[in-house]
Design brief:
Layout (H helix, E strand, L loop, with lengths): L2 E3 L16 E6 L9 E6 L4 E6 L6 E6 L3 E6 L8 E4 L5 E6 L7 E5 L4 E4 L8 E3 L6 E6 L6 E6 L3 E6 L23 E4 L5 E6 L6 E6 L4 E5 L9 E2 L2 E6 L6 E6 L6 E6 L4 E5 L9 E5 L6 E4 L1
Parallel strand pairs: 15-19
Antiparallel strand pairs: 1-25, 2-3, 4-5, 5-6, 6-7, 8-9, 9-10, 10-11, 12-13, 13-14, 14-15, 16-17, 17-18, 18-20, 21-22, 22-23, 23-24
Organism: Lentinula edodes
GO cellular component, one term: cytosol
Protein name: Peroxin-7
Length: about 300
């Protein structure tokens, strides 16, 4: 597990997200004693997120403050190998599908979510997901046509791209009149929801983190996806962080372990089993001296 902070020494651990207009890609061997390679490109906008390609080991997507999405080859200097500009405000997240590996999704402060293929010059689908900033959009690791989102409006939403309303073709992929109907809306918080993640082992189970400092686990397995539904059962509610929860991620190895990163400068590991034999909070990492903004 790697946590990202604003501390300069820690920004070297992953391809760099930088608000100082520099894209830096740094590679380390298993030991962090020696840099294998480093590439950088001076740009005029902040970077809010990145995602490694599921197909090409050297390709990385970045989400930009100027509303663009760029695809980089980390073995090449300077220019991105592809760029798209459709969002009208900052792009806050990008995510590759781990099932349809040639497809990725983006979310923006303009309230839209867009689905893309890197060989297409334009997005293949636009969702008017929320009326305000969409902090994150993620493909389900279990069903390739499900996308979850979280927003400043305090909700999580699930969109099913198999719905006839989302079929591709004339009149169904309008960039001026984007589609908006979610199959499920979860009223997750009275404050902004900053982050979410799908559980890797339990389909239709998600976790959310919000400005109200709460971490919650949502069980949506009993909700029948169809016409717009409102629901979802809060399986676990995990208080403990002192400030907003900025990022969370389920363990890829254990169905009940969840990592969180917060503006309180701590990272925490939780056991999410309801009424389990162990206390929910397993570990607190408090070595950071600045906001913790990411984890992997």
């Amino acid at each position: 597990m790697v946590f990202l902070s604003n501390e300069p020494s820690l920004w070297r651990l992953l391809p760099i997200l930088d608000w100082l207009a520099t894209a830096v890609f740094t590679s380390f061997p298993l030991s962090l004693d020696q840099v294998v390679y480093q590439r950088s490109s001076l740009i005029n906008y902040g970077l809010y997120d990145l995602a490694w390609s599921e197909v090409h080991e050297n390709h990385v997507l970045t989400a930009s403050g100027d509303g663009s999405i760029r695809l980089w080859d980390v073995m090449l200097d300077n220019l991105a190998i592809a760029a798209w500009q459709e969002h009208t405000k900052e792009v806050f997240s990008v995510d590759w599908s781990n099932i349809q590996k040639d497809t990725f999704v983006s979310s923006s402060w303009d309230g839209t979510v867009k689905v893309w293929k890197p060989d297409r010059p334009r997005s293949i689908l636009t969702l008017q997901a929320h009326q305000s900033c969409v902090y994150q959009a993620l493909f389900s690791p279990h069903q390739p046509d499900l996308i979850s989102t979280c927003s400043t409006d305090g909700t999580l939403k699930i969109f099913d791209l198999r719905s006839p309303a989302y079929a591709t073709g004339p009149g169904t992929n309008s960039f001026t009149n984007p589609l908006s109907a979610a199959v499920l809306t979860i009223p997750a918080s009275a404050s902004e929801v900053l982050t979410l993640d799908w559980n890797k082992y339990r389909p239709m189970v998600l976790a959310s983190g919000s400005v109200d400092r709460m971490v919650k686990v949502w069980d949506c397995r009993m909700v029948k996806l169809g016409d717009s539904q409102v629901g979802g059962v809060c399986e676990s509610s995990l208080p403990g962080h002192e400030y907003a929860v900025r990022k969370l991620q389920w363990s890829p190895h254990h169905a009940d372990l969840l990592a969180t990163a917060s503006y309180d400068m701590t990272c925490r590991i939780w056991n999410t089993t309801p009424m389990g034999p162990q206390p929910p909070l397993r570990y607190i990492h408090d070595a950071h001296t600045e906001f913790v903004v990411g984890s992997d």
